[in-house]
Amino acid sequence: MASQSNGEHAHAAHGDSLQMPEGTQRFETFPAENPAEIVFDDADLQQIEAYKSRYPKKEAAVMRTLWLAQTKFGWLSEDALKLVAKTLEMPPADVFGVASFYTMYFKKPKGKTHLAVCTNISCSLCGGYEIYNYLKEKFGLENGDVTADGKLSLEEAECLGSCGTAPAMQVNNGEYVENLTVEKLEAFLKEKGIL
Ligand code: FES
């Protein structure tokens, strides 16, 4: 065990080093292609007021408002996150924090078909990495990338709550494809016109 008299080791042991631990996900934000288009109209603002009215504090409406922004703009650019913060009168850092925590919020533009492939424990034991790596290699993608034709994007996801039917993937934040095999995945990709 590191001696507590060694300041450097003592700090590292308590995890308060200023260095980012290895494997920590970095949260980057990207500006919208056209920031002028990142605005809420009257109907959106009315909807956000309705969200706010359901909670004792306006901040509690942040998840629904982020979802509305994502549905409207396609993904959550830095401009969209700032718009949500301004609309809810919240510190941008708080809104960025919520958006960065949940994978359902897209922080980068996505492909027409976005596949979130689970590689958490149950899925990885049942071949989740075989599925994920197949997509990486077949389409030359890394986590978060979009194909040049914009048809497909890939994400390595944490548990999707479908462990009993592992391995699983989620399509465009909606439909689940479960008990995946490479054959089943290929059939899915053909059906979508990707393969
Ligand atoms: S581990 Fe993949 S859905 Fe739970």
From TrEMBL:
The keyword Metal-binding applies. CDD domains: TRX_Fd_NuoE. Its EC number is 1.6.99.5. PROSITE patterns: COMPLEX1_24K. Transmembrane segments: none annotated. Keywords: 2Fe-2S, Iron, Iron-sulfur, Metal-binding, Oxidoreductase. InterPro entries: NuoE-like, NuoE_dom, NuoE_N, Thioredoxin-like_sf. Residues 1-21 are annotated as: Disordered. It holds the Pfam family 2Fe-2S_thioredx. It comes from the Bacteria. GO terms for molecular function: 2 iron, 2 sulfur cluster binding; metal ion binding; NADH dehydrogenase activity. Its cofactor is [2Fe-2S] cluster. The keyword Methyltransferase does not apply. It is an enzyme of class 1 (oxidoreductase). Belongs to the complex I 24 kDa subunit family. This is NADH-quinone oxidoreductase, E subunit.
